[in-house]
Amino acid sequence: MERIEQYRQFIRQLLTTHATVDQNLDSDVECQLVFDTEQDHYQILDVGWEEYKRIYNCFIHLDIKDGNS
Questions:
Q1: Is residue 15 part of a domain?
Q2: What are 24-58's pLDDT values in tens digits?
């Protein structure tokens, strides 16, 4: 179980760092972090608007399955 918790911590740190670097403060597109630690799903989403176009992109999606990432 300790190994899975290390995976979770590493993934959260990696995605948080990436989301912080990727933020564009002049844009109406928001970078969202999604951490589902019960089901072990982790995502970075781009959500918002570019003029009249809706933006919803899953930029990164990582899962831990059977103790492996």
A1: yes
A2: 666 788 999 999 999 999 999 999 998 899 999 99
The whole-number pLDDT of residue 58 equals 94
Calpha distance 47→2 (Å, rounded): 34
Range of the domain at 17: 2-63
C-alpha span between 16 and 31 (Å, rounded): 10
The Cα–Cα gap between 55 and 60 comes to 15
CA distances from 54 to 17, 50, 57 (A): 25, 7, 10
pLDDT for res 19: 85
